[in-house]
Design brief:
By secondary structure, the chain is mainly alpha-helical. The protein is built from 10 helices and no strands. The chain is globular. It starts with a helix and ends with a helix.
Length: 253
């Protein structure tokens, strides 16, 4: 019962805090924050508790490939938002994500390969996406935006942890980084503030995705042998360190 209660509260609270930050600092920071493992991180914790450390280690390695696949979503959305409405752009971006995810699922199951593929794919994606031509303005949100994101967070968490024993650690890790919140933020930004806002958000997501990689590299390296609180403390520290470093580099440019 306690574990279920934590599942029902942890991810929604993280999403609520991230949403407040997004509204305060705009779509670029929104994308940067949306790339944090706000759902995948709690999923990893519960996989370690419910399925075991070896399961969590394998899932963490595959989560790195999963976030690399999200680069395809960001590229397609950013590049096509200028010409097409969200109802066309969103499904095309989802298809691109799952196509790349399937291709990456065929890669050798080793941590060095996962890291190399993720860093290269995210780096190339960031170059392809580039900066938007115009600076987007603030993105207003309807009252039901935050509740929708919180419900989606709980749904993703319960779904993946519920079916983990059936689909195994590889696919549990691969599907957990699906960009649910990036998609929600992107569609709202696109509809309410135009293609430049959606473009900026996708670019911020790609920048933040490197910290996602750092989080799961730390988990994959430590979860087998280190106490779980320390595992996720170290992973969070690695995530924040990479994110802050990248944000400073981007701001200087």
């Amino acid at each position: 019962m306690l574990l279920l209660l934590v599942k029902l509260t942890l991810a929604p609270v993280l999403i609520w805090l991230a949403t407040l930050a997004t509204r305060r600092w705009g779509p670029a920071i929104g994308g940067w924050i949306a790339a944090f493992p706000l759902t995948s991180g709690p999923v990893s914790v519960f996989l370690a508790l419910e399925q075991g450390r070896e399961f969590a280690a394998i899932a963490a390695m595959n989560s790195i490939l999963g976030i690399a696949a999200a680069a395809a979503f960001c590229i397609v959305y950013a590049k096509s938002a200028r010409r097409f409405p969200w109802a066309i752009v969103f499904p095309c971006a989802c298809i691109a994500h799952f196509l790349l995810l399937f291709i990456l699922s065929l890669a050798p199951s080793t941590l060095p390969v996962a890291i190399m593929l993720a860093v290269v794919i995210l780096g190339v994606a960031l170059l392809i996406v580039g900066r938007p031509d115009v600076q987007p303005g603030p993105v207003p949100s309807p009252w039901w935006d935050v509740p929708l994101r919180m419900v989606a967070a709980v749904g993703v968490l319960l779904l993946i942890t519920g079916i983990a024993s059936y689909i195994g650690p590889k696919w549990s890790g691969l599907i957990s980084p699906f960009p649910v919140f990036v998609a929600v933020l992107g569609v709202f930004a696109h509809v309410q503030s135009g293609s430049a806002a959606a473009h900026q958000l996708m670019r911020g997501t790609l920048i933040g995705s490197f910290s996602f990689v750092a989080f799961f590299v730390a988990v994959a390296l430590t979860v087998r042998d280190v106490s779980l609180p320390l595992v996720y403390l170290l992973a969070t520290a690695a995530c924040l360190a990479v994110n802050v470093a990248l944000l400073r580099v981007v701001q200087r440019r």
